[in-house]
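Hi R.,

Here's the chain you asked about this morning:
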Amino acid sequence: MESKTQACELCPRKCRVDRVNHFGFCGAGKNLRVALVSLHKWEEPCLSAERGAGTVFFSHCNLRCVFCQNFSISREGFGAEISVARLAEIFIEQQNRGAANIELVTPTHFTDKICAAIDIAKARGLSLPIVWNSNAYENPETLELLRGRVDIFLPDLKYFDEDAAKKFSAAPNYFSVATAAIKKMFELVGAAKFDGERMTRGLIVRHLILPNFRRDAIKIVDWLYETFDDKIFISLMNQYTPVYRAAEFKKINRRLTTFEYDSVVEHAANLGIKNCFVQIGKTADEKFIPDFNLMNVERKNHGACRPKD
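And here is the predicted structure, written out as tokens:
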């Protein structure tokens, strides 16, 4: 597949940076960079199944969320550079470990190379569902590259309020961009399909409820149900933890209250939504943040590396 990283327009920012010689707004250059390959048992039950989702955490991100729990890889660029061929090997290795799927976490800025790796791995016997776990700030044109390659989309629809999106994630026009992307995702995979308890195809839209933004969350739930009815799954998350730069913003510098979360869940139930995941118990804890240690990234783990300034 021809590289899309010269005059890069993979994401809605369309910064047109020549990533062969420079870094894009997202921080990524020409090469894939991965921080962790793991079996993740804390995803939605239909994704984790028995052995865990086969997560591949990519470094860098096209958003700048001030509360990002993965800031060491999204903003600081922690990770190791790997080839497309090595990524294809990682997919096969995850399958051999018994992963329920291949879950690509924050993959947008490497879309072209990931597509090439998927093609190589499928030619070598990869049969697991491919999960695209993104922040929803995506181009429909880029998502079209995933047709026939990705089976499950797992976007996080972060904001209804445009001012919040700009203030906390430096993401102009977030809601309009993200909802267009989510509609495209549904077009690509359609209604959910299962093999027993394991999802094999479909769309799960996550929403991380922020403190002082329960009304924003309710508007997001309303839009999702009005647009898709019960053809998709919604995942309402209560695990917001004020990390990274959250202390600089008083409005979001605390954990979510039980009332804030329960009121959004109750609203979803009152609408009649049937396909909704909720989190029970205390999930807002830094112990749930992955340990980005390059596990399973390289054939032989060497020291971690960061991109040059």
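One quick note: Strands lie at 32-40, 53-58, 80-82, 102-105, 130-134, 152-155, 193-195, 198-208, 233-237, 276-278.

Cheers,
M.
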